[in-house]
Amino acid sequence: MVAGKVATHEHFKTIVRKRPVLPLDCVDEASPFDCVSCEGSVAAVHEQKMKVDGITPMIKTTRYPAHAVLETDNDTLYDTAVRPLIRTVASGAVPSATILAYGQTNSGKTYTINGVLDRAIPDMLHAAGRVEFQAMEMLGKITTDMATGERLMVCETDHGVMIKGEVWIEFDGPDALLRAVRRAMAKRVTVATARNHQSSRSHAIYTFKFPGGGRLRLLDLAGSETSADQLFHDKDRVQETVAINKSLMALKDCFKKTAEHAKYIPFRGNQLTLLIKDAFIKGPGSIPTTLIFVNVSPLLKDIRQTVASLRYSALICAAADRKDSGPMAWSKSDVRTWIEATLGFCPPVLDGVAAKSLFILTENELKTKIGQPNLAKSLYDAIYTLKQASKKPARRPRQ
Length: 399
What we know:
Structural class: alpha+beta
Strand content: 15-25%
Distance between the termini: 44 Å
CATH class of the largest domain: Alpha Beta
Radius of gyration: 25 Å
Shape: globular
Number of strands: 16
Helix content: 25-40%
């Protein structure tokens, strides 16, 4: 059973990373069952079910696609998935890039981000010569500078997203920068939970600024939790979990909307998505500027959360793979030819307009744009007729 098709969005990649079975996993189970296997660019989940007779056991396998599915060490992961992006943003070829690790608690997110940082820092300084560093954590609605401990405020101005109170520290050597990153990591809020003896309760954001103006953000997100994971939480832990899940839902929604090419991306709905607004905007060139690591656990007891993470990965892949068809897929030249055939000429204001921009306009918007009500009504009626006809296979206009 396959949950969807493999797809690559033009500005972000979704990479599933499966962690291995660890010695600590054998404490509860003598021989933990590995229920996830990697099959190229597909993650296969094997789940025990009963046949329709209710007696006979069976293994049901569901496959979830992604841009890549990895079961490798940090060196291989960095070389194959991360290094090209680091060099691109450090050299100034793109204005910003984002790398984030998403998944349930105890799925290997921090291990992944730490591994990337250890290998990326020497590459950054080799490419840029010097770099400025800033680290913060988001705990509910509170954002804190991890170096100074001071409260920060994320806000949007006419000049973009600003962080009031942030402090940047400049480095020109990898050893000093690595020490600063590790000091920041050590200050992150963690507590022992039923699922993880050192569970991160905040989102950690590590930002690097390069001389050319480019920025790289790495996000070690707090782990998502189910209601079952919260059974032994006190009131404070429950409130933290609610805030974590709310921000993760906002993040998932923004990436889904981005993959669907939606006109409106609700990044203002949460401080986290507002901060990484650039991650939802396509940069110049063809290199994806956002990497989403979907970390999953191989354990049978984690299968619900694993499936939820993989479903989300497959969902945004499938959304990105959808291609416009019919009139919505017309080129600007096709649109101009159709307008000329419909009205007898193409109004200058519509010359070069994209199909997606024209065919969603209301009659009043067309009147305002063209300035001639009768002409706008004729064009609106023709667009309506075209949309109805496009429910059947539509032909491109002849040149």
